Amino acid sequence: MREIRVLLAGNPNVGKTTLFNTLCGVHQHTGNYPGVTVDIKEGIRNCGDITLLISDLPGTYSLSAFTPDEQVARDALLTSHPDLIIQIIDATNIERNLFLTTQLMELGLPMVIALNMSDLAEESGIQIDTACLSGNIGLPVVRIVASQGKGIDELILAFIRAAEEKTPGNPCQVRYPQAIVSRLAEISGFLNDHARLLHGLTPEYAAIRLLEGDQNLSDRIHGRNVIIPVIDT
């Protein structure tokens, strides 16, 4: 049996837990995260010779942790070494969800977009060209209705394929002003020479978060007395 570790991420109220329940059924349990009173649901789904180990993360609007829920979601994404991230997006309000999409893409992990509540979008007169959306963000996009089980088989095939390819696809690049690009290059170059401090994070991702002033990430990285002066100069 091969195992694929999958994290379900997304904004609050996008149907993450509904999708988790649809995928795992009764094969699930609730685990506590150390140090906080926030639960993460974990479950399995067997697909032939593949076992999907699925975690339903708390809803979060960004990876800048300000609440316990956001901290748990962010820490799981950074430290649990998943094979794949599934971002569930509300099809009736795609734009609001895309800020988190850009942050997740910067992690450099295989990723699939599950466009949930597509039936409600259609009822509201919203027409979504999933092929065009996929082409623009550089990630697989699958239309689903989690509450009805629609699109689930296609979603499973998409994320097994993405996980087995072990590449982040070809995600679009976020364009920063040149001054920020220069600072990011300087910081990520330094971090690349001290990769042991990053515990699996890409230098580019860590540089962005550190430049934002992410104190939690600063504290997580050993050797911050060396790194922080580089950022502050």
Task: Please describe the structure with a list of short key phrases separated by commas or semicolons.
about 230 residues, alpha/beta, Rossmann fold, 2 domains, 7-stranded mixed beta sheet
Structure description:
The structure is a single chain. The chain has helices spanning 16-24, 68-79, 94-105, 118-123, 130-137, 152-165, 178-192, 203-211, 215-220, 224-232; strands at residues 2-10, 28-32, 39-47, 50-56, 84-90, 111-116, 141-143. The protein has 233 residues and is an alpha/beta fold. It has a 7-stranded mixed β-sheet with strand order 2-3-4-1-5-6-7, with helices on both faces. β5, α3 (94-105) and β6 (111-116) form a beta-alpha-beta unit.
Topology:
Blueprint: E1 2-10, H1 16-24, E2 28-32, E3 39-47, E4 50-56, H2 68-79, E5 84-90, H3 94-105, E6 111-116, H4 118-123, H5 130-137, E7 141-143, H6 152-165, H7 178-192, H8 203-211, H9 215-220, H10 224-232
Parallel strand pairs: 1-4, 1-5, 5-6, 6-7
Antiparallel strand pairs: 2-3, 3-4
Helix pairs in contact: 7-8
What is the CATH H-level superfamily of the largest domain?
Answer: P-loop containing nucleotide triphosphate hydrolases
User: What Rg, in angstroms, do the CA atoms define?
Assistant: 18 Å
Total number of helices:
10
Q: Estimate percent helicity.
A: 40-55%
Largest sheet: 7 strands, mixed
Percentage of residues in strands: 15-25%
